[in-house]
Amino acid sequence: MSTGWSDPQWIREELRKKWDSGKILQALLIEEDLFPLRLPLKRPKSNDVNENFAEISRWIRQLRDHSKQNTGFGYELIEKEMVHRQSGRNLLPTHAVVPTVRDALRLMKKEREADRFLEILGRLSAEWPALLEWAGRHPHKVLAVGDDWTGILAVLKWFSLNPNCQLYMRQLDIPGIDTKFIEQRKGILTELLNIVLPEETINHSATSFEQRFGLRVKPVQIRMRLLDQAQYIQGLSDLTIPVEQLILLKPDVTRVFITENEINGLCFPDAGSSLVIFGLGYSVDVLKAVTWLQEKEIYYWGDIDTHGLAILDQVRSFLPQTCSMLMDENTLLKYRDLWSVEDKPFLGKVTRLTSDENQLLCSLQNNRWGKGVRLEQERVSFQQVKQFLSTL
Q1: I want to staple 210 with a disulfide (CB 3.0 to 4.6 A). Which of 8, 38, 215, 314 is the partner?
Q2: Residue 84: beta bridge partners?
Q3: Which of residues 194, 212, 230 is at a domain's end?
Q4: What pLDDT does residue 261 have?
Q5: Burial of 61 (C-beta count, 10 Å sphere; 0-12/13-18/19+)
Q6: Over the chain, what is the mean pLDDT?
Q7: Based on the domain organization, do 23 and 68 belong to the same domain?
Q8: Which domain, by its residues, includes 121?
């Protein structure tokens, strides 16, 4: 209907908005003022009567035909008498009133979802009454879990019986539940476990699901090479070990080099009383826990671009003694023919660079030598790397 007057479909759409907001499902649980729901109708104005009398009659008839008086459910009409000098007295619908929540559900064909919602709430009431308040506030989340509720409740029960178990997720022995089930539902499980578990069993400062609820996490692996043959461990120089074990290793070295590029780490020249750590990028923060690094000479070698200098600044936040390696303007300009383009430069502020390093960063950010100039560390000649090490 092109008139813009409210028709039965408009009434259903208004109810759909209430459904989407969760208010109709909530009305199944608590007594509130939502029902009877009174909806003011967009209707003809008095000056429309003469020009559109036939169309108005069809509009009234359509509303009445679909009303509860004729269908047995849905909306009732409130009508007001309109007196017109040509058409006489007529009753014009002004409001649609949906008497009960069940009328609304049937009108929207949502009875099955509502019954399912109440069924789930009955189960929660029996097994986890602490979740009822949450369910009332988030009725659509309750429905969205769908057939997963049996598994969800099994997971909640297991965690409540085994707090802070310090097992890997793969080790959880929950009948009918595999690791993927939990992995794919961490969001909803986090919400629910936060409610049902005692506060003292939850690590609220944790950044991962596993740490938050007392599971073991996959250890962060650190790749390193010992650069002094005298420091090899039973003949081994290239090691990948969990950061927790690196904390305990405490190798007898004077200098530690940190570089991003894997190949650079693998072919880093031999150097007395030294080792190289590589392949971390912005994850370099994991080295904060390795406290023995604070006692060593630290050299960071990254790309000469905005992100490389930002990582250098990051390393100095916990290893303030860090010196940069081959990350200066002279090195950049020497390899002009090997420059590449940094697509998404770092545009933030830093506070721990030297004046020369900070000037280099500003020059790169301001495109002094061209847009997005960068020199990747693997493009620096191996001979220059050796020459730098010879000066130490």
Answers
A1: 215
A2: 88
A3: 212
A4: 87
A5: exposed
A6: 92
A7: yes
A8: 112-212
CA distance 272 to 269: 10
Cβ atoms within 10 Å of 353's Cβ, excluding its own: 19
Q: Which of 109, 131, 165 is the last residue in one of the domains?
A: 109
Question: What is the DSSP-derived secondary structure letter of residue 252?
Answer: S
Facing residues of 76 across strands? 97
Domain-embedded: residue 1: no
Tell which phi-psi region holds residue 358, choosing left (phi > 0), alpha (psi between -120 and 50) or beta. Answer: alpha
Question: Over the stretch 308-354, which tens digit does the pLDDT of each residue have?
Answer: 999 999 999 999 999 999 999 999 999 999 999 999 999 998 999 99
pTM as predicted? 0.67
Q: Which residue has tokens 């150097």?
A: 271
Are residues 205 and 125 part of one domain? yes
CB atoms within 10 A of CB 376: 19
Number of domains in the chain: 3
Q: What pLDDT is stored for residue 49 in this prediction?
A: 66
Is residue 203 domain-resident?
yes
Tens digits of per-residue pLDDT, 216-247? 988 889 999 999 999 999 999 999 999 999 99
Which residue has 């100039």 as its token pair? 373
The DSSP code sequence of 131-146 is GHHHHHH-HHHHHHHG
Both 174 and 83 in a single domain? no
